[in-house]
Design goal:
Blueprint: H1 3-11, E1 19-21, E2 29-30, E3 35-44, H2 55-73, E4 76-86, H3 91-107, E5 111-119, E6 123-132, E7 148-152, H4 157-165, H5 173-184, H6 190-196, E8 202-206, H7 210-221, E9 224-228, H8 236-239, H9 245-253, E10 259-264, H10 269-279, E11 283-290, E12 294-298
Parallel strand pairs: 4-5, 9-12
Antiparallel strand pairs: 1-2, 3-6, 4-6, 7-10, 7-11, 8-10, 9-11
């Protein structure tokens, strides 16, 4: 057995009961029951995570950010494939990374059914696959004028944690732990996405920044939006920065939140509030979809705020 296949066998081969055939052949054999929802994300050292990042947390995040894409479609997670490049074989790193990856995989019943390894700069790429009823799938092109805009959890915390890690601000100990956890160990809203099917028709996960991702919905659905800045949900750590430029930037444009932004009819307000209570997730109504085009974020005096960079740009 070559070194590559030894690594795969030791760290990334586990039983995959949901597949006809999993890791170990040229292809996996899968038997879906519904429409397949598939997505792929790549994390690159120095671009998406710090050099010397904790491999256990990195393993968790590598899968979690992909699961967030399934959550945004209302899809049930099923299978994943992992492509990994690394400059050299570091068995301690691989052991910690794989444990983090499989901890999240076990939590959401995901089977790793294939992938690839090679020598190169540290980069991690996951293809995630899930199942969804195509008629109920949450899509960016299904927002309609008159609908409410909702956001799960709180936003801006990961960006605030990044600013702290870079030394741009100094958070108190508990706030720092909270924001750094949001940055390094995000929780995908899988249960929420599944529960929204039939209540909402349109959602996106907030990965590049609230404004940038909401704009994807507006462009896909050919609608406009008006958002109340004061209504945007923030944590205790963020509250003191809300009215400062660094806080405003984190809330409106900070990436890595992995919360869901979704739209729904005003008739479903009570159902959404009940859903938030049932799941133990904060769900906040932050604005309204309108006709026309464009995004307006209003301050507490109903003045239109100037939005600089809407969010993270991969080639900006």
């Amino acid at each position: 057995m070559t070194a590559e296949f030894e690594l795969i066998s030791r760290y990334f081969t586990k039983a995959s009961p949901s597949a006809r055939l999993g890791v170990g052949d040229d292809c996996a054999l899968l038997e879906p029951e519904k429409t397949i929802a598939a997505s792929m994300d790549m994390l690159v050292e120095g671009t998406h995570f710090f050099p010397k990042a904790d491999p256990f947390l990195l393993g968790k995040k590598t899968l979690s950010v992909n699961l967030s894409d399934l959550a945004a479609m209302g899809a049930k997670p099923r299978w994943a494939m992992l492509a990994l490049s690394m400059p050299c074989v570091d068995e301690d790193w691989l052991d910690a990374f794989s444990k983090g990856f499989f901890e999240v995989a076990g939590r959401y019943s995901v089977d790793l059914v294939g992938g690839d390894t090679t020598r190169g700069a540290l980069a991690l790429c996951v293809q995630i696959m899930g199942e969804v009823d195509a008629e109920l799938a949450l899509r960016r092109d299904r927002a309609r004028a008159g609908e409410d805009i909702w956001v799960s959890g709180t936003i801006g915390d990961a960006a605030l944690g990044l600013a702290h890690a870079k030394g741009e601000i100094r958070l108190e100990d508990q706030d720092a732990l909270f924001c750094l956890s949001a940055l390094h160990d995000p929780v995908p809203r899988v249960e929420l996405g599944l529960a929204l099917c039939g209540i909402s028709r349109c959602a996106i996960d907030i990965s590049d920044g609230f404004c940038a991702d909401l704009l994807h919905i507006l462009e896909g659905s050919n609608v406009s939006a008006e958002v109340d800045y004061a209504a945007l949900p923030v944590s205790h750590a963020m509250e003191q920065y809300r009215m400062e430029s660094i806080g405003e930037s984190a809330i409106l444009s900070g990436g890595d939140d992995y919360e869901l932004c979704f739209t729904a009819s005003t008739d479903n307000r009570s159902a959404i509030e009940d859903l938030g209570h049932a799941l133990g997730i904060r769900l906040t109504r932050v604005g309204r979809i309108g006709a026309g085009k464009g995004l307006a974020v209003l301050d507490d005096k109903d003045r239109r705020m100037v939005i600089g960079k809407a969010g993270y740009e991969h080639f900006g």
